Amino acid sequence: MTLIKICGLTEPQTRDAAIHAHATHLWFVFFPPSPRHLENERAAALAAPVPVHIARVGVFVDPDDALLDAAIHAARLTILQLHGHETPARTAHVRARFGLETWKAAPVRTVQDIAATAAYAGAADLILLDAKAPEGAPLPGGNGLRFDWHILAQARPAMPWGLSGGLTPATVREAIRTTGAPLVDVSSGVETAPGVKSADLIRQFIEAAHAA
């Protein structure tokens, strides 16, 4: 079954909707420019009721170790996702320093972008393929953009991977069937406004992914 990650949760009701619809991963953002950003105290309250079988993913953009340490303890994170310009060496350091599963988001537009993810083999546990943000965009992800999924027929990461970028309840079934993605990740595709998740859209997304 495809793993399903709901990104950027900020409210108890949408957290609960994701849990009850059987999401496998819940994602909390620790990046102040994002409308989905959580301070540690709020993240702790949101994460506290999450069952232990659901992964709690913290998303960071070029974090230092102190920020990671504080967020890990506040939200009881089980996975770290690096979504900035972290090098393979920095990614490997984070993975070794904190002893948690570590993902690296990779901006994708072309086959060459996918091939470049090979540099993270052995440094990250999973590569998350996300649509490349427009030049000058304030956020590296969560922009509602998608890349051409058909390029995955020409190249795939040589390590575990997931698919992100432009996924919605209307497109996730096609995405899974086209790419065979073992994990799908949604953020803006289940929102009614930037940072405002919809419980109904979350349920629809997970149902569509399960039906793929």
Give a verbal description of the structure.
This protein is of the alpha/beta class. The chain has one domain (3-211): TIM Barrel (Alpha-Beta Barrel), CATH 3.20.20. Helices cover 31% and strands 22% of the residues. β1 (3-6), α1 (12-20) and β2 form a beta-alpha-beta unit. The longest helix has 13 residues, at 199-211.
| Number of contiguous helices | 7
| Cα end-to-end separation | 9 Å
The H/E string reads: EHEHEHEHEHEEHEEEH
How large is the radius of gyration? 16 Å
Strand percentage, roughly? 15-25%
CATH architecture: Alpha-Beta Barrel
Shape verdict: globular
**Main sheet summary:** 8 strands, parallel, barrel
The overall pLDDT, averaged over residues, is 93
Percent helix range: 25-40%
Low-confidence stretches: none
Task: Report the structural category.
Answer: alpha/beta
CATH class: Alpha Beta
Domain unit count: 1
Name of the CATH homologous superfamily: Aldolase class I
User: What is the spatial order of strands in the main beta sheet?
Assistant: 1-2-3-4-5-6-7-8
Oligomer: single chain
What topology emerges from the helices and strands here?
Elements lengths: L2 E4 L5 H9 L4 E6 L9 H8 L7 E6 L4 H11 L3 E4 L5 H11 L2 E8 L2 H6 L9 E6 L29 E4 L7 H8 L3 E4 L4 E3 L2 E2 L1 H13 L1
Parallel strand pairs: 1-2, 1-8, 2-3, 3-4, 4-5, 5-6, 6-7, 7-8
Antiparallel strand pairs: 9-10
Helix pairs in contact: 1-7, 2-3
Question: What's a concise summary of this model?
Answer:
With 212 residues, the chain is α/β, with parallel strands linked by helices.
